[in-house]
Design goal:
By secondary structure, this protein is α+β, with helices and mostly antiparallel strands. It has 9 helices and 23 strands. Strands 1, 2, 9, 10, 11, 12, 22 and 23 form an 8-stranded mixed β-sheet that branches. The protein is globular.
Length: 403
């Protein structure tokens, strides 16, 4: 039976980042298994807003990995994109409040950003916010200059190419069928086009995104991780279509709020009530539907376009495969009209859908060795800010491997 020292399951942005990072210094054969026919991040990695997050939402107490790896990953991602020609732009982010209740939530975000050492954070009035984005309505705003956007598929392609050039083997179009743990290795069975392949690996890295909980259970049936998928949808509009809906290039977010755990409906409660409900596990945090610029491919070159995306929504779903849209243009309009009042429902059109790997009962990333089979490293619940944190996550995995 063929022996492979290191096997990575999942060829999204995190899996490719791990392959890239390990191939730089580990003198061992590395294999990456991806069920899709190509490495383009066809699940979570490309079906997102493409935002490079600053790290403002994640508490060091309840989400220590997200708090650390998002801020680290933000800087690493800008450096990588610049060095390797990945389309990106530092846009800056405005988080805006439109009433006193929202200002409480906004203040919490700002002070949390200071605790996380997010660079350049500023808090200012609604008048200053409107001087930066005249078509935004706000009573108070926070500004975070390290937010930006990246073209996700180009990022994944660069990571794939660099890892492949250093000898990482990519087994594409192969579905993982079974994992049989042995004393110091795993017997891996994959299937493609009716053919079955079986090999052994010494170290298994589970970076399977939406399916990471299934892989963890293959390794250890006692694993208690369960992904509760959340459907996200985006709309878009063209800022040049008419007067009053243009923007100056910032990403604009509402103040965050709670959504009820089961229904994903907004919890219209005070900030103190929200904290108590969050502690009880009855609500989860939502950063709301936001506005962000997009890249367009023009004459084989990526440029910032006049198209702006709005989203994502958050809807509970039982399926990891159903990407069909559930919301209409009126839904998007209703949720952004308070802070972007000039936009009309008819300006909007549906754009894309995605499914997020929300880990039930855990607000943070889980990146750890399996308790029963420690030569398996599980990465479970890598939802937002997984894209931003991907390069920092890869370094963290290498730290675990080195002990």
């Amino acid at each position: 039976m063929e022996q492979v020292p290191i096997t990575i399951i999942g060829g999204g942005v995190v899996g490719c980042a791990i392959a890239h990072e390990l191939s730089k210094s580990l003198d061992k054969e590395i294999l990456l298994i991806e069920k899709n026919q190509r490495v383009k991040g066809e699940n979570q990695s490309s079906r997102n807003s493409g935002v490079i997050h600053s790290g403002i939402y994640y508490s060091k107490k309840s989400e220590p990995l997200k708090a650390r790896l998002c801020v680290e990953g933000n800087q690493l991602l800008y450096e990588f994109c610049k060095e390797h020609g990945v389309p990106h732009k530092r846009t800056g982010k405005l988080v805006v409040a439109t009433n006193p209740r929202e200002e409480e939530y906004l203040n919490d975000v700002f002070y949390n950003s200071l605790a996380n050492n997010v660079p350049g954070a500023q808090l200012f009035s609604g008048e200053v916010a409107r001087s930066l984005e005249p078509n935004v309505s706000a009573t108070k705003a926070a500004y975070f200059p390290s937010t930006g956007i990246v073209e996700p598929t180009e990022l994944i392609s660069r990571l794939h190419r660099l890892a492949e050039e250093r000898g990482v083997m990519f087994l594409l179009g192969n579905k993982l069928v079974n994992i049989k743990p042995n004393m110091k290795s795993f017997e891996i069975t994959t299937s493609a086009n009716g053919r079955t392949e079986i090999f052994e690996t010494e170290l298994l890295i589970n970076s399977a995104g939406l399916y990471s909980d299934d892989i963890a259970c293959m390794v250890n049936p006692e694993s208690h991780y369960r992904i509760k998928p959340i459907l996200g949808e985006w709309a878009k509009f063209y800022s040049t279509r008419r007067e009053g809906i243009g923007m100056n290039g910032f990403s604009v977010y509402p103040a965050p709020y709670g959504i009820w755990h089961d229904s994903c409906e907004k919890a219209n409660v005070s900030f103190s009530e929200y904290n108590e409900l969050l502690r009880q596990g009855k609500v989860i945090r939502s950063i709301g539907l936001h506005l962000s610029p997009m890249f367009d491919l023009v004459n084989d070159e990526y440029v910032i376009s006049s198209t702006l995306i709005v989203g994502p929504t958050a809807t509970r779903t039982d399926s990891k495969e159903d990407y069909s849209a559930k919301s209409d243009e009126a839904f998007f309009h209703e949720r952004i009209k308070n802070f972007f009042p000039n936009l009309r429902k008819e300006d909007l059109e549906l754009h894309q859908t995605g499914i997020r790997a929300k880990l039930n009962g855990y607000p943070d990333f889980v990146i750890e060795r399996d308790k029963k089979h420690p030569n398996c490293i599980n990465l479970v619940g890598i939802d937002s800010p997984g894209l931003t944190a991907s390069l920092a996550i890869a370094k963290y995995v290498k730290e675990i491997i080195r002990g």
